[in-house]
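Changelog-adjacent note: as of this version, every example in the card shows the full chain rather than a window. The one below runs 332 residues end to end.
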Amino acid sequence: MPSSTMQEMLLDRVGAKLKLAELPIPEPTPRQLRLRVLTCGVCRTDLHIVDGELTQPKLPLVLGHEIVGRVDAVGSEVEGFAMGDRVGVPWLGFTDGTCPYCRNGQENLCDNARFTGYQIDGGYASHTVADARYCFHLPDTYSDAEAAPLLCAGLIGYRALTMTGDAARLGIYGFGAAAHIVAQVARYQGRQVFAFTRPGDTRAQAFARELGAVWAGGSGETPPEELDAAIIFAPVGALVPAALKASRKGGLVVCGGIHMSDVPSFPYELLWEERVVRSVANLTREDAREFLALAPRASVKTTVVPMPLAAANEALDRLRQGELTGAAVLVP
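Full-length structure tokens:
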């Protein structure tokens, strides 16, 4: 007889270690899918939640918004999914559809959005439920572990990349999970990639070169050519003036994270000559559809470090210390 309980790694207060808990398996509402979680990626956003840098989590909370699961129950109003389908669940978990942003095609900025693994329980668990309208079929070319990072590192990275327009010389600051995917898409599009890592991180620099970067160095170094655009994935505000300094006239700097330390003051001359700084917030469902179709065409390969669900705290610690090449993925 199938078990009626599930395991989950629970955050019960900000700053605490996650605790292994056993709870009843939830039943889906009419618009939800219930999923048996196959894998769930570990994202830097999860660290920001644990550390209290994102201040509106529901508590207690199950983290995780890069969920790959198998449908094992379908709500009565769900269309487009069936029992046994493999689906992905990303960060965006609900929008109201009626606010000015939603009506303007900017659902990523919805006034009443809710997010998976933040205001909605996520995938650090053996089972979860999710609104089917925010779930996606996944390309068959990826294993369960390989598919997980596509759902945030890939999606947010893709949205950030689209913000750079047709920039031919692209700088990427912080070469982790998102960067290792974006670099491959950028190369597929014919761009040159310049990778910036923590000073002295020769391992990450070698990884960037393996993925096609024409140059890799420390974040304080000057690239051999001026950048047309730069994406900052590292949550370090001091990288903003550094990226501006490395950019040409009219260049663009995109801040791709959900949280960043304070940006220090800098001389206006770094911004002058029509350089632009902007942020990227969340994602839209159209971003997901576009990127999940593009990734296999671009032969994007994800580098993952599978770890058991019970090792979630270790995975977060290794991410915090910069000890991962690619992305940690939890396997229940």
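Structural remarks: The CA atoms of residues 168 and 191 lie 5 Å apart.
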